[in-house]
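Subject: Shikimate dehydrogenase (NADP(+))

B.,
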Amino acid sequence: MDDSRETLTKRAFVTGYPVRHSRSPLIHGHWLKTFSIDGSYVAREIAPDDFPAFIGSLKDGSSLFCGGNVTIPHKETAFQLADRPDELAEELGAANTLWLEEGQLLATNTDGHGFVSNLDARQPGWDASDVAVVLGAGGASRAVIQAVRDRGIGEIHVVNRTVERARELADRFGPRVHAHPIGALREVMTNAGLFVNTTSLGMDGDRAPEIDFSHLRSGAVVTDIVYVPLMTQILSQAEEQGFVVVDGLGMLLHQAAPGFEKWFGRRPVVDDTLRNLIIADM
Ligand code: ATR
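Prediction pasted inline below.
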């Protein structure tokens, strides 16, 4: 292996548009340091029109990257341009992790893995066979539904302002996933053991609507995929009403681990040192 190949195996990226707020370079930089790996992980802001050319340079080796993460708005295009997306990416129609293998571009989606691993780590007793309520029906919601379904959850109720989008997800993810309009939220929460917010409600200084969680079963877990702030308005409300809450930061940290292993060959751990590093940067 010559020097340029050596470099090729150790450079990874995150690309989005915009990408400057991404915490991924901090996460992967921490792991590179932990393992003393001579590699790099950098942010590349790429406009949608330029994204196919970027993927082309990745495939032909001229970019010298061995893979990377893609975030909004490139996840769907990344899936379409990959040579071999795996089943997870295929079902979601979106990829967030790319890597080269024998000249081919492989792709997966680790968002769902990040979601369940965060629950496993912070609330080990969460019950995958329970009834779950997922608020929202966007891209993040898909990954959450897929992951929870794959862990064997009993029933999943998807509640969305635009009920048609929830119906699309119910059709896509099979018989145990049900769609509801937002007005049905209270009713579908009855006896549910898991509530997941996948919307941006309460961000950007807006007030989130008041949610009455009292119909959830006692001991239910309420979680949010938003992690800025860590304690979202929805989580605060749930905690005040006596429920266990899990913030969304761990989802970001756990979704990063499989990519690091693909590019750099070591499986990193998500621990409090990393979590505190990211919190200090927020
Ligand atoms: P992402 O891919 O990050 O999940 P998205 O596709 O824009 O983002 O989805 C955002 C989700 O938040 C959607 O479920 C959206 O509801 P609609 O499908 O009805 O648009 C939901 N959402 C955003 N703002 C909302 C609001 N003010 N009230 C209710 N739901 C909202």
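The radius of gyration is 19 Å.

T.
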